[in-house]
Amino acid sequence: NTISADKVFSMAQYYNRLQCVMAIFFPMAVTFASEASVTIKRLEQFLRMEENHPLPIQPLTIVNQAIRMKEVNASWTNDSIANTLHDINMKIETGKLCAIVGPVGCGKSSLIQLLLGELRASHGHVIVNGTMSYASQEPWLFTGSVRNNILFGQPYDEQRYREVVRACSLVKDFVQLPQGDKTLVGERGTSLSGGQRARINLARAVYRKAEIYLFDDPLSAVDTHVGKSLFEGCFKEYLSGKTRLLVTHQVQYLKNVDHIVMLNNGVIEKQGRYEDFKPEDFK
Fold this sequence. Notes:
This protein is of the alpha/beta class. It has helices at about 5-45, 110-115, 145-150, 160-165, 170-175, 195-205, 225-240, and strands at about 65-75, 85-95, 95-100, 120-130, 130-135, 145, 185, 210-215, 245, 260-265, 265-270.
């Protein structure tokens, strides 16, 4: 039982390998197995969900209307006691800017999801005349360049791209970024500010060619100066002639929209032009 150099080095190598397996690889295997189990459960839950039939895009008999809803009820769950949206009657003319306002949780985002076909109507009729482009309330980005996040698979049109960047107030931001619009952003855009992520998310929706644009509160993540620039330069000027639905809490812009829809507890409380409302209606 003598100790020799070859035995010492062999045993040291053996215990190093054993330590590597037990201290690093085994805990990693347990972590990955746990994450895989959670992922499988989520996939099973998703696959067991009821099929969602997309909203059919069909032409209206009245040419000047882009969206029409008649006596629409909708709920996110079949066994819900109360409807998320109840008795919705709404007509949006082609080429108009419509603002959807109301307190938090009143159903503004659900109304947008209804138009997208993500929320299915249990009663009534929803007719959309034209293709749609949507900017979500929560901005999301994928790993890649800023330009690719805006194009999102669409063909690159330099003139249109520059106009969209200018309309979405991104020119100064591109100057500040290390490589301009070719700067790589991490998953969810962690290297960018909240306002920059929101405007890139908005630019993606605006760059896509469509007849109807749906914006879910894009002004909430930007300051007053940038918000004014977006409203005037993007919603009013660049998208002029397109049908636009803007969910917002910024009542100072309502004077400049064509139609206002006020929601409260999933019901349209009032709609019309700004002159049809009283100042206390927006408090």
